[in-house]
Amino acid sequence: MEQTLSIIKPDGVSQGLIGEVIKRFEANGIRIAAMKMLQMTKKQAQGFYAVHKERPFFESLTDFMTSGPVVAMVLEGENVIEKNRTLMGATNFKEAEEGTIRRDFATDIEKNVVHGSDSPETAAFEISYFFNQFEIIK
Ligand code: RTP
Ligand code: MG
């Protein structure tokens, strides 16, 4: 079964959206296989978003992602990488479909509530970045 990494970003946690986001995952047949709350260090955020290190928003993004606690989850289900991306909506909430998490709750292109892996390769890297094999429930 496919797995992906989801993160409820600091703005999602501070807006009180942990339950709302998890409710949407479960209502759509996605299983939570692992979950933890943590506050990332700057180094941890830089490593996580290393693919974006040349982007103009890298500094701001890594500051934002370390600004408060996040909830990291391993999601499991059929086609879950794409399914999660669909539930999240477009990066820019103004372009996101109605009924998506970002359209409903994002406040800014950066403060867009959730992260989701975008391919099987990034999912494998991102899951192992936060979870070891004993923390992922079969
Ligand atoms: P994510 O990685 O967080 O799931 O989001 P994504 O794939 O939809 O977007 P991506 O291009 O990977 O960008 C990562 C995060 O960086 C912030 N961002 N800011 N200021 C900007 O123009 C800008 N562009 C992206 C967002 O928080 C985005 O989710
Ligand atoms: Mg991305």
TrEMBL record:
The active site is at residue 115. Coiled coil: none annotated. Its EC number is 2.7.4.6. The gene is ndk. Belongs to the NDK family. One of its GO terms (biological process) is UTP biosynthetic process. It comes from Desulfosalsimonas propionicica. SUPFAM superfamilies: Nucleoside diphosphate kinase, NDK. The keyword Zinc does not apply. It catalyses: a ribonucleoside 5'-diphosphate + ATP = a ribonucleoside 5'-triphosphate + ADP; a 2'-deoxyribonucleoside 5'-diphosphate + ATP = a 2'-deoxyribonucleoside 5'-triphosphate + ADP. This is Nucleoside diphosphate kinase. It is found in: Cytoplasm.
